[in-house]
Design a protein that fits this description.
The chain has five helices and no strands. The protein is flat and about 45 Å long.
């Protein structure tokens, strides 16, 4: 269907932009920023080929950061703790009304960030373990 093409482009553009912006925010906040920046760039590059040149360098840095995040038990514990703190902060922001920007919209985004962090941590760990097994 020819009419679906512009709508698909808009949906991909919005999804890619959201991933990219959340990733950029997570570069300074706790979370897997580079991996989300990479996901946003890959999504946007599917519709805007000029962005393809940025995917390679970001992929290299994101994969290195993913490997570094699971390089030691201390880093893994720190990431798990950060996820727990995000989920706990989300529950607090959702239930305590006197906090700035309190409510479940802020709370849900914090909880979701914690789950995303855990998901990417698991993905990073499995990826690194698979690479180690392939080398052995």
């Amino acid at each position: 269907m020819e009419g679906d093409k512009p709508m698909k482009r808009v949906i991909i553009s919005v999804a890619g932009t959201v991933l990219l912006l959340v990733g950029v925010a997570l570069l300074v906040l706790p979370g897997p920023g580079l991996l989300l920046v990479l996901a946003g760039l890959i999504t946007l590059a599917s519709e805007f080929p000029a962005l393809e040149r940025y995917v390679g360098p970001v992929r290299t840095r994101a994969m290195k950061a993913a490997e570094d995040s699971v390089a030691s038990p201390v880093r893994i514990a720190g990431s798990v703790t950060a996820g727990l703190l995000l989920v706990a902060a989300g529950v607090v922001w959702g239930t305590v009304r006197w906090l700035p920007w309190s409510g479940w919209s802020a709370g849900t985004s914090l909880i979701l960030s914690g789950f995303i962090l855990w998901g990417l941590l698991i993905w990073s760990y499995r990826r690194v373990q698979a690479q180690r097994a392939a080398r052995a």
